[in-house]
Amino acid sequence: MASTLPSLTLGIEEEYLLVHKDSFDLAETPQGMMEACRAELEGQVSPEYLRCQIEVGTRVCQTVDEARADLKRLRACISRQAAAFDLSPIAVSCHPFANWKEQHHTQMERYDDLRLALGNVVRRMLICGMHVHVGVEDQSARIDLLPQLSYFLPHLLALSTSSPFWNGEDTGLASYRLSVFDNLPRTGLPPNFKSWAEYERTTGALIDLGVIEDTTKIWWDLRPSHRFPTLETRIMDVSPRLEHALALAALVQALVRMLSRLRATNMRWREYDRFLISENRWRAQRYGTEEGLIDFGDRSIKSQDMLLDELFALLAEDADALGTTAELETLRDLARSGNSATRQRRVHSAAEARGANPGQAVVKHLIEEFHADL
Predict the structure, then answer these.
(1) What is the spatial distance between Cα 91 and Cα 245, in angstroms, rounded to a whole number?
(2) Are strands 187-188 and 219-220 parallel, antiparallel or unpaired?
(3) Which of 90, 160, 193, 319 is deepest in the core (most CB within 10 A)?
(4) For residues 67 and 74, what is the distance between their CA atoms, to the nearest angstrom?
(5) Looking at residue 23, which CATH number applies to its domain?
């Protein structure tokens, strides 16, 4: 069986915001900080679209434990270099009170082109996400797994939501980031393709016309990576806590292994219409873990606890083989105690009750969570 499965290697990309430690406002990345990070991290760090953002990416990792060591090193480096400028990173998908109109984009050809192509839509991209790559070397397998893994994208989003606030207001959503991101073209759930050739013909039509230069400009929630032989999940909000990010990466890896294991025995996960999956996507975006998702098999709405019980039973063999049972259990604790969106709202309410500045209290909380596992 092992020889029929893909490598299931892991890669994690995270985007952070930089804030002033005194005012908790956003800060633009100092040139000296970026140079120091690049010197230490050797290609694993880069600027993002807005100057207040910075992106890191792990090496290709064989296990979650290996990813933990690398991501911890990356987070620690960004924190240490930021501290030299009295700044701190936060791993959150939306700053609770910053105004997007006051931010400036990074002067690079790629980002200049985006600004020209997308107008004010891209100006609003004051959002951060986490992308998880899982190694699936065979192209036909990547396309075959694409619609099957799509079923679980709302589950991943629900657990990860960290963006309830925007411009100083509670949006009523657990992931406002997704509302902002969906204004871009070529986003949302991926189409279903019958073959790799069909995928190349479809995306190639835009490339041949000069609409996009390559598939890096296709921003689906899940996509075959342009640069690596991986499936890349892009739907998740970034997680303030390191261990929560790793637990979500472990879940993605286990899901890909489970679906690959079924495929190796000529079985597969049932495919549902994108209309139905989109409804669960909305529920996750709106409620996070608090209202449950639809189980289309038995036509019921199930709580997060019920969903995780069923999912972990399904993935028990895979988590055991990958050595990630403990990481999956972390997600159970996260769902019961509240994900980041829930935790941020608790901090916000408590600050209001004692007459403190609620937005600043939330950022202080996010700084503490970023450093909790380092």
Answers:
(1) 10
(2) parallel
(3) 160
(4) 10
(5) 3.30.590.20
Which residue, 132, 129, 53, is CA-closest to 93? 129
Q: What is the pLDDT of residues 115-143, one digit of tens each?
A: 888 888 888 999 999 999 999 999 999 99
The count of structural domains within the chain is 1
In the block, which residue shows the tokens 């987070």?
A: 75
- Helix axes 153-160 and 304-322, enclosed angle (nearest 10): 100
Give the tens place of pLDDT for each residue, 207-258: 999 999 999 999 999 999 999 999 999 999 999 999 999 999 999 999 999 9
Query: By C-alpha distance, which of 290, 7, 34 is closest to 136?
Result: 7
Sort residue 299 into left (φ over 0), alpha (ψ -120 to 50) or beta: left
Task: Give, in order, the Cα–Cα distances in Å from 109 to each of 44, 114, 212.
Answer: 20, 9, 14
Half-sphere exposure of 189 (CA within 13 A, CB side): 24
Judge whether 184 and 122 are in contact, CB under 8 Å: yes
Contact by Cβ (8 Å): 180, 124? yes
Q: What is the pTM of this model?
A: 0.96
